[in-house]
Write a sequence for this structure.
């Protein structure tokens, strides 16, 4: 369950406030504030804030995508081909499940 202060951030994000969007993205990127770790949702929040020209969100999006690429690269060097195909088709890396 989200912590009480998160409700304010959700409300700000719902109104496309850049700080609210950015903070929701960070919470989902790292699983803070009671938010489940979810890279796909974090990416969506970062992209919305970045579209509003919010510089920290642009940086956060780049860091998130870099982390996902590194995770994918590490996985590709170790996993059998059938696991790689499954992971890619189920979006395991962008959704925080892999």
């Amino acid at each position: 369950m989200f912590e009480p202060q998160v409700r304010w951030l959700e409300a700000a994000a719902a109104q496309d406030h850049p700080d609210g969007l950015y903070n929701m993205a960070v919470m989902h990127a790292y699983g803070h504030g009671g938010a489940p770790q979810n890279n796909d949702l974090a990416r969506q929040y970062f992209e919305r804030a970045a579209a509003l020209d919010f510089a920290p969100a642009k940086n956060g999006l780049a860091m998130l995508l870099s982390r996902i690429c590194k995770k994918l690269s590490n996985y590709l060097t170790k996993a059998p081909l059938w696991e790689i195909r499954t992971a890619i088709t189920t979006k395991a890396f962008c959704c925080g499940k892999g």
Q: What stands out?
A: Residues 4-89 form one domain. The helical segments are 4-14, 18-30, 39-51, 55-76, 81-89. The two ends are 22 Å apart (CA to CA).
